[in-house]
């Protein structure tokens, strides 16, 4: 998923667009239930598409969005998710998987339990 806002607008403005559609791919973790477009935006760090979907459909932020934001490595998406969700051990796991020491350090310093 690239972060091409103009093409994404065309995609979501189609008559038969389903905001609840799920995408399946064996390359994603635990893909048996599929992932929403917002989840994939977080996973890929597509901040413009993420903002567009949030604004257009007034979507709630889920724990999955937060976890995937660490994999997507986009601090803007991560910050937005942190406004609505709290971190947990799974977030640390995803931060470690992302190989980003700054995210791991951030979690260690900000969210000590």
From TrEMBL:
Signal sequence extent: none
Domain DUF3447: 57-112
Lineage, opening ranks: Eukaryota, Metamonada, Parabasalia, Trichomonadida, Trichomonadidae
Name of this protein: DUF3447 domain-containing protein
């Amino acid at each position: 998923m690239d972060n091409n806002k103009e093409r994404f607008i065309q995609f979501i403005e189609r008559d038969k667009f389903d905001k609840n559609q799920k995408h399946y791919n064996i390359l994603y973790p635990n893909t048996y239930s599929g992932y929403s477009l917002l989840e994939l935006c977080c996973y890929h760090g597509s901040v413009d598409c993420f903002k567009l979907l949030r604004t257009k459909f007034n979507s709630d932020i889920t724990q999955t969005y937060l976890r995937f934001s660490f994999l997507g490595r986009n601090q803007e998406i991560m910050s937005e998710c942190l406004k609505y969700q709290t971190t947990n051990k799974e977030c640390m796991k995803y931060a470690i998987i992302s190989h980003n020491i700054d995210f791991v350090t951030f979690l260690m310093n900000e969210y000590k339990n």
